Amino acid sequence: MTPIYEDEHLLVLEKPSGLLSVPGRGPDKQDCLASRVQAVYPEALVVHRLDQDTSGLLVMARGIEAQRRMSRLFETRQVHKRYMAVVAGQPLQSQQAVPADEDGWRTIDGPILLDWERRPIHIVHPDGKASRSRWRAQQSSDTATLVELEPVTGRTHQLRVHLQSIGHPMLGDALYAPAPVRALSPRLMLHAQSLAFPHPFTDAPMAFEVPTDWSAHAPYGHFTEVPTMSFEAFKQQALAEGFDEVLERTWEPNVVLETHTHPFAVKARVTAGQLWLSCAAPDGSPQKRYLTPGDEFSLNRDEPHAEQYGPEGATYWVARKN
Fold it and tell me: What pTM does this model have?
């Protein structure tokens, strides 16, 4: 990763959509922005994160003292972030009753709570942590609205949850948008466009911006086509790895399969819908993975696991090794 700015204390980077900020659980989740940066800058340390599907600006600290000072800037809300998003519908119409300031900003106040049984999904709930976001419309069409966003607080998935809570989920959002809205974009339409803060060592004002070409009108932006794997390619790969048979499975919506085992090893790739897979992490601790199209998972012979399918069910290719 090549920084868009660097000095002896800081690195400012532009993260692409689809790349993790930090490593996740499992060998397939180790590639991330942090590890790519640390391969070139071994002293670089994480200060904050962007969701995997969010693109845009992210800052890393060079050394413990820089990390401590940058973290303090975030804690005291001296770091100012602006995002761009394309959301479904016309929030200017649905939110007419919500007062706007002289610059057109409206506020969403909604406490955010992790939905434990459906993690990593978060919801607006009275028991959640106090959360505030500001938004203003930049452009509207019959189907969507381009909005500028400012997170006042910094909760997980905050902007996505807040926009969904007022009835305007983001296009391409695999977690919070219904299937028709998700299908309008090949990626989550959320981008961290600007970042401003006082330098943690000199107090000099620092400001960075990476604008988008997004629009409220279809196709909403220009996207790099991501190569997709075919069933035949998955099959040949699995057979080369010693699996005996490969087939396609489809599960109905909201099916729950309690903990069970298979008398064969499994390798699978999700192609539609979503599911939660509960199994053991590599270190033996329990984990619950949320899987969407393009994600793969493996299970050993007789490995205990449980499955919960989402509101659209799920389809996946599965290879078995007897």
Answer: 0.80
